[in-house]
Amino acid sequence: MRTRLWIAAAFLACLPSISVADNVVTYHNSIHRTGAYVLPDLTLAAAAKLHRDNAFKASVSGHVYAQPLYWKPKGAKRGLVIVASESNKVYALDEASGAIVWQRALAASVPLNQLPCGNIDPDGVTGTPVIDPATGVLYLDALTTTGNGPRHMVYALSLADGTVVPNWPLDMQAALATSGVTFSSSIEGERSALLFFGNNLYINYGGNFGDCGSYRGTVVQLKTDPPALAASWQTRANGGGIWAQGGIAGDGAALFVTTGNTFGATNWSDGEGIIRLRPGLAHSTRDKDNFAPSNWKALDNSDEDLGGTEALPLDVAVAQGAPAKRVIAFGKDGNAYLVDRTNLGGIGGALAVTKVSNSRIITAPAVFQTQSATMVAFSNSGGGNCSGSNITMLNVAAGGSTPVTVAWCTAYNGAGAPIVTTTDGASNPIVWVAGAEGDNLLHGFNALNGQVVFSGTGTAMSGLHHFATILATKKRFYVAADNTVYAFAFGR
After folding, report:
1. Residue 337 within a domain
2. Is 55 inside a domain boundary?
């Protein structure tokens, strides 16, 4: 018995930190990007009673692609829902009423006709910002109009009142140029979430829709006080954009990114890959720090990026001993790629390449993980055991001939990115997803079997964009859309 208890305790110690959502300071609620939230009141039975909170009335300006964040400083009676838009407007909304507590207009965003390609008009804040909880500062990247053309400007805002922190913003193109790094803001897109780790800010870039110009997948590490470039990393070949919504994920020691297709590479040069990075962003060509499918060149040629989703670090339970350290990522080719986190394996070195979809996978996954199960949910437009748009849930095992298998698949109409809620980290697990650019309803499914627990009744929204995900707090869900934010209440 003591042995079993020790194993369980050791495994739980390795799980990502999942707590009641006092603050949500980064995309999908953790550096692990699991999209997991603990909400004690949201049982399977209570899910059926979720409803639109008509007392919450929010008005913001601009298209919204980024996930909202939640900030409640110590001693505050109410928290703030933080929203950033493509119009380069940032809002702090009262969590209960939706009233604007403060707002900040940054430099003007960039009209699409001033960019060589793209599909966002105007282009401003696209990637989800991040909060440093130690200082109460919000960091974000905003594409802005300047006298020198479009520039990615990195801002730091005080969450107390929205004022710009002294010495900010930082001109990313100019900062990289001082280090001899080629970077053009007009062709480098910033669609991924920012990350704060080890007192450094991480931002990653890829191309714009249409893949125009000579860009490279780029990761930047910034010091924040005062702002300064600490390090950078780029793909060796052109292309290889980093564009998954979750951007960089981490396991507490290292960071992981996925890259897209490169152009004209005859030898593998960092595209179509899972890449391990550490603070300092030293470029490693060792197999243990990189993975790419054996058919990476064919994926390049057909634009079937492996980098459709962020690389998620997982600790998978084993019968005895420490959990197995894994990373999973998904591609436009419909495959799930499972690799060993201690040795990513180099070219063709995956533990498993499993066809889990008949169409591309390009929305952020979510993870339900306990000491006995690791399950990964993703949204796509047709695959698994379902046709049409659906949520697919995978079981991930530490070993065996088929470590990745489909647990269930349930149809829904939309292109949102799922989250998972539980009441204590394990009980009452529910997968939630917004039917973005489909039926525009909220949907809830039992994470264990895919049964519908909430059908979306009364939750119709408009102005949602694909990849939209849900912010969960103790009392409400929030979904950002064009010019507004929707709130949904639950509870006893």
Report:
1. no
2. yes
